[in-house]
Structures are given as C-alpha cells and as structure tokens.
Amino acid sequence: ASADAGGLVIVQRPSTGPIIYGVVPDGATVTVTGTDGSSNSVRVTSNVFTYADPTARSVSVRPGGGSAMTTNVN
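Above: the chain's sequence. Below: its structure in token form.
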C-alpha cells in the first residue's frame, strides 16, 4: 500500500556516498537534489530506480498526479 501511495525509498550509506533504491507507483517521477541545489531526474524502470551520487541531499517521488514526497539522504 505504501508503494502504491508514494513509493518506498531505501538509502545505503557506504563510505563512497549514498546509494538510493526505490519502488514507486506507476507513472511516478523521481528527482534527486544535490548538496549544491542541482536537480537530476532519475530513470524509473518497471517501477524501480537506483541512484548513486556522493553529493545527493534528498530524493523526491511524485506519483502521477500526486504531491511529491521527499526523503532526506544525509
């Protein structure tokens, strides 16, 4: 039910920087914001995404037609 509503996001924190994994509902978009304020769209394939960047600050999941849900990475 959580994945259908807004997605599930898990963050690993190895010494090389965060790795973000997620399962999102159909039609969702994912954006990662860096520590410098830049935003990067993340490719979603079969409702799953992964993203690794040592400068990642937060990840936002926007379900199709819904409000964005943001998770802080650091």
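Residues 35 and 41 are 15 Å apart (CA to CA).
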